Amino acid sequence: MRLTDYEKSVQKEVDMWLRGDASLAARAMDWVMRPVDWAVEQVVPAQLVDQMSEAIGAFLSRLNDTTKWAVDLSGIQSEAKRKGLEHEKIEDLRGAPLETLDELAKGLFTQNTVLAALSGGGTGLGGAVLIVADIPLLFAINLHLIQRIGAAYGFPMTGPEHGPVILSIYNAAAANSREARSGAKHEIGIAAASYAGGGTYRGRVRGVFSDQSRHIPRELSKNLVGRKLLQTIPLAGAAVGAGVNYWFTRETAQTSFMLFRTLYLEHKERLR
């Protein structure tokens, strides 16, 4: 199917995002954290780093334990109808105008970033023990954010078979690099071909999701775990925790927004 003028402009915007450098916010975070990242490497016990890394791996592995990932999408459907998008099921939104779907998706950003910031601020007051507990909560918040943004475009990521897409979004959000974004884009292309052909999505990553998630993506460990450790700093822990959680969730929202727009466009083009 032919793309509209608006869809073509979005396609150009996505291409610029894929080829571009890290966002201004990500570059600012990298600049501020550079000396602190070095300090963390020098003084933080390896055992604590391992504990936090294991917390991420354990959460990602548990995603494979259920046939469906619990998320309430009724709010997405209600808001879509309020915007004049009549549909019987979420998947029907794949045929809705992209302009309206973009508005629907953007409306999901604030609630989740604020929730993540509050979570990080609260656990930052409790030292290393609560920080380890905060990591699965942060990933749960971001998982639901990814699912809701995907649902806004008619692609709800509500089952473990979507694990490769979720992992690629997490990794691209944490890395904010061309390479990571390119890898996620490739995964989205596979999903688009599967959906357009009426088949079942199968990710390019070999092995079941529980096996994949044992190998935590490098950038997740490097860019997130080290910064979460800064929450152990007395008095500053709450502010650091809120800031890091806000940064990661905001990057997840923006990455999901761009990639699900890509999925919408590629799916439409493949329906020709």
Architecture overview:
The chain contains twelve helices and no strands. It is globular. It has one domain. It is mainly α and 272 residues long. The longest helix is centred in the C-terminal third of the chain and has 34 residues, at 237-270.
How are the SSEs ordered, and which strands pair?
Blueprint: H1 5-19, H2 24-43, H3 46-62, H4 74-82, H5 98-106, H6 109-123, H7 127-152, H8 163-175, H9 178-196, H10 209-212, H11 218-228, H12 237-270
Helix pairs in contact: 1-12, 3-7, 5-7, 6-7, 6-12, 7-12, 8-9, 8-11, 8-12, 9-12
Tell me briefly what this model is.
With 272 residues, this protein is an all-alpha fold. It contains 12 helices and no strands. It has one domain (5-270).
Keywords:
272 residues; mainly alpha; 12 helices; globular
Largest sheet: none
Query: Which residue ranges are poorly predicted, with pLDDT under 50 across at least 5 consecutive positions?
Result: 120-126, 206-216
What sort of overall outline do the alpha carbons produce when their principal axes are compared? globular
Strand content: under 5%
Helix count from the secondary structure assignment: 12
Order of helices and strands: HHHHHHHHHHHH
How many independent structural domains?
1
What distance separates the N and C termini?
A: 5 Å
Total strands:
0
Q: What is the mean predicted local confidence, pLDDT?
A: 75
What structural class do helix, strand and pairing data support? mainly alpha
Q: What percent of the residues sit in helical stretches (DSSP H or I)?
A: over 70%
